[in-house]
Structures are given as structure tokens and as C-alpha cells.
Amino acid sequence: MDAKHALTAAELAQRLGLELRGDPAIALHGVGSLAAAGPGELAFLSSARYRGELAATRAGAVLLRGEDAAGYPGTALVAGDPYAAYARAAALFHPRRVAAPGIHPSAVVHADAEVDPAAEVGPLTSIGARSRVAAGAIVGPGCVIGEDCAVGRDCELVARVTLVARVLLGARVRIHPGAVLGADGFGLAMDAGRWINVPQLGGVRVGDDCEIGANTTIDRGAIEDTVLEEDVRLDNLIQIAHNVHVGAHTAMAGCVGIAGSARIGRYCMLAGAAGVAGHLEICDHVVVTAMSMVSQSIREPGEYSSGISVMRSRDWRRSAARLRQLDGLARRVIALERERE
Amino acid sequence: MDAKHALTAAELAQRLGLELRGDPAIALHGVGSLAAAGPGELAFLSSARYRGELAATRAGAVLLRGEDAAGYPGTALVAGDPYAAYARAAALFHPRRVAAPGIHPSAVVHADAEVDPAAEVGPLTSIGARSRVAAGAIVGPGCVIGEDCAVGRDCELVARVTLVARVLLGARVRIHPGAVLGADGFGLAMDAGRWINVPQLGGVRVGDDCEIGANTTIDRGAIEDTVLEEDVRLDNLIQIAHNVHVGAHTAMAGCVGIAGSARIGRYCMLAGAAGVAGHLEICDHVVVTAMSMVSQSIREPGEYSSGISVMRSRDWRRSAARLRQLDGLARRVIALERERE
Amino acid sequence: MDAKHALTAAELAQRLGLELRGDPAIALHGVGSLAAAGPGELAFLSSARYRGELAATRAGAVLLRGEDAAGYPGTALVAGDPYAAYARAAALFHPRRVAAPGIHPSAVVHADAEVDPAAEVGPLTSIGARSRVAAGAIVGPGCVIGEDCAVGRDCELVARVTLVARVLLGARVRIHPGAVLGADGFGLAMDAGRWINVPQLGGVRVGDDCEIGANTTIDRGAIEDTVLEEDVRLDNLIQIAHNVHVGAHTAMAGCVGIAGSARIGRYCMLAGAAGVAGHLEICDHVVVTAMSMVSQSIREPGEYSSGISVMRSRDWRRSAARLRQLDGLARRVIALERERE
């Protein structure tokens, strides 16, 4: 894919701090996959799965590990972690969009809001009372920023993001379309046969460099705030309930749900559609695999699972029926063991 | 957290109908947690989990049960259900927002729509033909109301809510950002190797006092309506398919999915990410725990589950592998039992 | 439900190519259920579940199979697949909305965008640079179309749809409110203890006649495109990650999640809340039942499951506890078998 910046292989190696083998003068203007990259593009080999594509690649240069570079006749950039090096290289060719300062005439900004002159506010966006948008920030088209919110330096609200109330974003936070931060937490009390609402008085605090996916929801706290520390990465369609606390550098894949007041550690990874119950703690460096449910605190780092992979339905139905009778089966085995004695 | 209303402990006890112990003149201007409340704030003790925080609290007054009040030297309001009492107290300090009547000049209201002069329509909202907004209702910024919809008295559509078509809201319904009511149900028929759409001709009817969370979707019915009775409470990212009927006072936590034509009773509670199959019935007073799947009708009140909690992945992989062979294992136990005879 | 078109039973039979029994002159102006349809309405009987309602129906005419028509004294249209015939009949009475050409004055269209004069652009919608909207297309209220997108002929973006960047829609694609196509894929690399973003340079390509549900998200590809072939049908709240490829005529129910680079075949059906792991393949004609997880490639057509249905919680807790010890139980059975020998 074409990009606006072109670099020679030598310049790229120098910018990334990598060893270069092959032709230093090759001009590169973008990135591509091993299978599809052309002579002006940089590809990468990170997983053994794609090693077979290396011999046939037409890429101008390839990022790879030392052991893979050994037999490769083309121009190579040798990296300990080719995927991270690729990410940095691709960002050189395709830098993040920079704010085009100014407020679109169709935007509606409350008289008591403060938008820095170096911020960009897109068309058909509204900003409420006492909210602030810092320099370098982009608030894209169709966003709704409510009252008492803050958008930090160089944030990007791509489009149609909602910050409801009392949402404070650090610097360089990116939020994708449809995300809703700061909606009322789901706080209810049953009173004489009817639900009554518990006012949700806290806010949401999001640390520097966080990323929040499309249609993800993060509710504001009941009394104190819901908190994401720095560099938390959330994919699409994730639910973060009120008073949740997520530690720095933790990543969650799509469709994860975290119930109220759960406290998740740093450097955790939750795979797709994992669920975490409320009022529990997960320590640092925990991995939860896909479609697994955490219903008690986890106090030791490591990988945890409860997801079950499919089998033929007719076979599965038998297993599932037996599972429902499993306590009885276990008792029968105990009885057999006792008889034997 | 500061609020606009201040009350003495005596006034509060009277308003809530509770017994007061301690200083009736203490001025309270808001609520807080036991751990964080200051001398002008009201806290509550509802769960034994937090009893340890009572001794150290700096709260001006505390809502608690009689047995907890016995040893407490500070000002206490004694309640049978301290959490419900807290909810009512917090609502006194932080009353719901009242409509600021008028239509923002950036809103687009169809000539055939009717907006009551005592309703509020926020910026950048559009309202379609033959739709009505009643007195006291708030339609916040960025909403889209399509054709033939009705927003009842004192409803609040917080922001960026979509009512697609034929959505009728009762009184005091609250809907959070990103929710979509009245989209086409997912009705398809296979015809000569291609899908054809079944026109979705029904609407959505939502009873008084319902609440609908952020990014939740409720489709309109195929022929008749999708129905929520009164006081139904839905959290975020919930899917309610066409023709579903949800009984009064039922609550669902985040990420629940209900398939088409399911009929859920009154006073049910569905925990996070529970799923309900289509064309079945769940009676009143049923609780479904998190990540559980209901695939047959439930005819007796009580609590139902099928979710599995995580264990270490290496241990789980062994259990899961055995689960796939469980029918065989059960047969082997039967063989052992037979031999013994 | 009333519709704008009226037809006699004879005209309808002719338009649908069906055999008519009974009164050819009956005037029909809409459709309804067996239970609720009136004398001017057409009902259908497709499932044995509703056969009991046939005797009592007041419908003017009924679509049904030959064997059901035999004993029915009213006007009948005989169809091999009454549900598909109903879908076609209902579409005759309730045809899809046709574009009302023109751009609403509140819409914001970039100078470098191209909107065909025969397309409709609704209020408070924005369209970015280098995007195109073809003839007959409807872009409803509150949509955001970013840069380098294409909306094909006769598409309908109902309302508040977001196309972020490089999203190409074929003809007759329908997208429901809150859907987000073309957001950045969730591509991250860990580098010196912090996440860095992998630029997402691909787009999204959506084939003719696809349908995409409310609040569904489809990310754009990392290098190449995320692809939906023709006639793919997605319900609400579905997550399609970057580089996924979905074959023609495949349908997915609500809350399904597909992880990155998965390749799903043609004519597949994924039931509600099913999950598919990344970098795997599912062949054509595969059915995955509700809340099931696919974590390895599927190479043979058929139905696959791993979802578990609820039971009473107290009974389930015993089964679930035994499940966690299942490997041990299996070893004990093996020990018993060995002793016996």
C-alpha cells in the first residue's frame, strides 16, 4: 500500500536500529505481506507459519530474525522481534493523523466549554458545559461530549464517540466509533417490588496511551471513578462496568465483559468473549483464554481457561448429557472403588 | 461528592422514614463510600464485606441495619435495607435532571412531528415524521428518532439514542447512548440459494420506568411487537431479538442475548453474558447465572446455571479433553458395574 | 398491518407462482399472523407448532403446504416453502423504501466527495473526502462516512451508520444503526514493556446484498482487506475482526465474535454468541450452535456444538466441580479396569 513517505533500506535500518543485509539503496515507500508486497515495499516474517512464503516474495526488503535471514538472498533487516519492528516501520510510512486545528462550523460547542486553538473538532459534533479539549486533540465527526469531560493532548476520538459526563482522558488516548464512556453504571436496588436507581456519581478516568475499540462501553463509577491506567488496550464491543479498575498495559480482545468493581492487574491479557465477575481481583500477568469465565479472584500469574471447543453436535450432545449426570457418575466410581477394597 | 441540596440528618431520617440515632443537626450535602466520605456526607453499610470500614469512617452519618448500628458511636440512620435507603437518599441529593424546554436550533424536526413545548430536544438530533415527544421528556444530543415513534412523559434519551421506527416508549423511560430500538428484526428465508428478507412490520413497546443501557439493541417485531413490560432494566450491550416479550421488573446484566420470540417472565434476573434461545418461555422469578445458556423452557422459579469457572489452562485442557470422551467413560463405568454383578 | 398495495388472491398467486384454492377475488392489503390476521390479510403456516391456529384463523387467505391445505376450507395459496413465499408476499405489500433523491441541507458533504443526484443523504450526516454514494442509495440521518469509502447502488444505511475509511459496499447492502465498518483492527505489538500500534492499512469490502445488524463492528484489515462476499447476513452486536473473510450466503446471529484472519466458508450458519478463534478455516455448509467455540479449523460440513444448557444451580455446581476433577476420575476408571484384568 502506498504511503506518503519513502525511505531507503539503509535509512530504515538506521531509524529502527537494525542490522541491514543486502542493498542499502533500495527505495521503500510502504509495507505489505510477504505474499503481496512489491519491490518498493517492506514485508516481515514473524511466524514460522509463513516461512514458506519467504522464498517467493517480491518484497523490496524483509524484516526477519537472524536465523531466517541466513538463507535469504534478498535485502533483509534483522530484528529480534520482527513484528514489533514491522509495527514501528509501518508507523514511519503511515504516521498518525495530525490535528487540523479549528472547529467545524456545524459543531455545537457550549459557551462554557474550552477547546484549545490547536485542537480539531469535526462536523456535527457537540461539546457540553465545562468540558475541555487540549492541544493536538482530534474530536472527529458526530461525537457527543457531555459535561465536565476532558480530552487530553493529542487524543483522537475517531468519529461518533460519546463521553457522557465526568470522563477524563489522558494524553494520546484513541477511541473508535460508537464507544460510550461515562454512561450511568447499572446500579439498582429493589424497593417494595420495584427497582430504584442508585445515582451514579463517579466518573471515568482513562490513562495516557489507552485505546478503546468500536462500540465498547465503559460506565462511570457509582461513588468513586471507573479507572483505566495507562496503555490499556480494549478491542470492540467490550463492556466495562462501574468501578472497574484495569491495570496498565492490560489488553482485552473483542466481546469481553467485566462486571462491576472487578480489579484487573497490569500486563494481563483477556482473549475474546472472556467474562469476569464483579468484586474480585486478578493479579498482574494473568492470561485468560477465549470464552472463559473468571468467577473468583486469581492471585497467581499464569494462563487460565474454561472454554470448550466444538465437536460434532451428535457427539457433543452425548458428552453434555453425561456432564449433567457427572456427580452421579463420580459417586458410582467411588462405590466401585469401595467394593474392590 | 458535592450536590446542590443540603439536608440535616433529622430531615433526611424524616424524608426516608428511618430511625435516627446520634446528632439530628448534622448537615449533609452528599453521599460517599465508608472509606472516602467526609463529615458532610452520608455513607452506607450494606454488605458484611465492608463492616471493617465502619469503625474508621469519617462520614457525617451512616445508613445501616439495626445490628450494625448497635456498636456504632456516630450518627446513624437505621434501615432494614440500607442499600435501597441509600439509593433513595442519593436521589434526594442528586435528583434526576429536569427538562430544559425547547428545541436546539441545530436539531432537525420533521414538519409532521409533534414535540411538546415542555420537552427538551438537544443539539444535532433529528426527529422523523409522525413521531411525538411528550412533556418533560429529554431527547439529548445526537439522537435519531425515525418515523411513527412516541417518547413518553419525562423520558430521558441521554444522547445518541436511535429509535428506528414504530417505537413507543412509556413514561420515565431512560435510554443510554448508542442504544438502538426498533431496527429490523433478523428475519430471513432461504429461497433458491439466496437469502430473502422477511419484512419486519411490528414495532417495539417499552413500558413505564424501563431503563436501557448503552449500545443495547432491541429489534422490532416481525408481525406483532417486541415488548418490554414496565420497570424492565437492561444493562449495556444486550441483544433483544424480534418478538421477545420481557416481563415487568426483570433485570439483565451486560452482554446478555435473547433470541427471537423468547418470552421471559416477571422479576427474573439474567446475569452477564447469559443467553436465551428463541421460541421458549421462562417463568417468573427465575435467576440465570453468568455465561449460562437457556435452551429449553423453564417452568419453575429458582436459580439456573451452566457457566464454568476457569482453572489453570494446563489442568483445564485435561478436563476438557476428558469431557469430549465422557460418553465413553460413562459406558466403561457401566461395564465395570455389570461385571461386578 | 396495513400496507399501501392491495392485491387479489388471484393476483398474488400469479405474482408468486403458486396454486390458489378458494376465492380468487378476495382483496388482500397486508400480512398478519394466523392468530391476529383479519379478513383483508394474508397469513402463513410454516411450522407444525402453529397448526392448531389454522382452524380458528380469520385471515383472508393462508399460505401453506399441500398437506395442510387439504383440510382447510378457506382460501389457500399452496407453497412448497410457505415461509419463503410469505417473505416474498410481504415484500410485495411492503416494498423496500426508495431513495428520495437529494442531500438534506444539514448534511456536511466534503467538496471532494461524490454523491449521485439520484441518491438520498439524510439530515446531520457527514461524508468525507474521496467517498462516493451511488444512485438509488439511501444514507440515513446521523451517519458518518469517512474518507475513501464507496456506497453502492441502492444501498440503505438506515441511520447513524459509520464507515470509517476505505470501506467499499457493493449494491443493495443494508446496514442498521450503530454499525461501525472500517475501524482500525486490533493490531498491537509489545515493545519494551509498552504496546505499540500496528498501522491498519487495509479496508473492508462488502459484497452485493449483504445485511449488517445494529451495533455490529467490522474492522478494516491490517495489510489486505477484511471481506464479506455477497449475500452475507449479520445480526446485531457481532464482532468481525481484521482480515476475516466470510463466504457468500453465510448468516450469523446476534453476539457472534470472529477473531482476526479467520476464514469462514459459504452457506455457513453461526448461532447466537458463537465464537471463532483467529487464523483458522471453516469450510462451506458448517452450522455452529449457540454459545459454542470454534478453536480449530473445521474441514467437513455439518453441525458442531460445545454449548451447555442450564440446570438447577445446586445440581450444576456439583457437575461443574466434578468436571474440574474429570482427568482424575478418568484415571481412576482406568485403574479399576486394570485391576479387573
From TrEMBL, chains A, B, C:
Catalysed reaction, written as an equation: a UDP-3-O-[(3R)-3-hydroxyacyl]-alpha-D-glucosamine + a (3R)-hydroxyacyl-[ACP] = a UDP-2-N,3-O-bis[(3R)-3-hydroxyacyl]-alpha-D-glucosamine + holo-[ACP] + H(+)
**Root EC class:** transferase
The question of whether Lipid metabolism is a record keyword is answered with yes
A molecular function (GO) held by this record is:
UDP-3-O-[(3R)-3-hydroxyacyl]-glucosamine N-acyltransferase activity
- Residues of the active site: 242
A Pfam family of this chain: LpxD
Annotated CDD domains:
LbH_LpxD
Entry EC number(s): 2.3.1.191
Tell me the keywords, alphabetical order. Acyltransferase, Lipid A biosynthesis, Lipid biosynthesis, Lipid metabolism, Repeat, Transferase
* Top-level division of the source organism's lineage: Bacteria
**Bilayer-crossing regions:** none
Q: Where does the UDP-3-O-[3-hydroxymyristoyl] glucosamine N-acyltransferase non-repeat region domain start and stop, copy by copy?
A: 27-92
**Pathway of this protein?**
Bacterial outer membrane biogenesis; LPS lipid A biosynthesis
Q: Which family does it belong to?
A: Belongs to the transferase hexapeptide repeat family. LpxD subfamily.
Question: Which purpose does this protein serve, as stated in its record?
Answer: Catalyzes the N-acylation of UDP-3-O-acylglucosamine using 3-hydroxyacyl-ACP as the acyl donor. Is involved in the biosynthesis of lipid A, a phosphorylated glycolipid that anchors the lipopolysaccharide to the outer membrane of the cell.
Description of how the protein assembles with itself and partners: Homotrimer.
Q: What is this protein called?
A: UDP-3-O-acylglucosamine N-acyltransferase
